[in-house]
Design brief:
Blueprint (H helix, E strand, L loop, with lengths): L10 H16 L8 H38 L1
Helix pairs in contact: 1-2
Length: about 70
């Protein structure tokens, strides 16, 4: 079973884990007893990935704004 936190997790590792969970949920051998647990973990990973994307978008906007300001000066 996967670790239930996102401490030290990279975006790519989170995405890989999400893909494994999706494959498991799509398989005919998906265990109904772990369905809620896997769904909760997927939700945690999705929230983490969304947060990383938002933070990266903000960082890129800051870099581009500084670059624009440097060009204007």
């Amino acid at each position: 079973m996967e670790n239930n936190d996102t401490t030290g997790l990279t975006y790519n590792k989170a995405l890989d884990e999400l893909e494994r969970i999706l494959a498991e949920l799509r398989s005919t051998s998906c265990d109904v007893d772990t369905l809620a647990e896997r769904t909760r973990r997927a939700a945690e990973l999705l929230a983490y990935c969304r947060s990383r994307l938002t933070r990266t978008e903000t960082e890129l906007a800051d870099v581009l704004a500084r670059l624009d300001n440097a060009i204007e000066d």
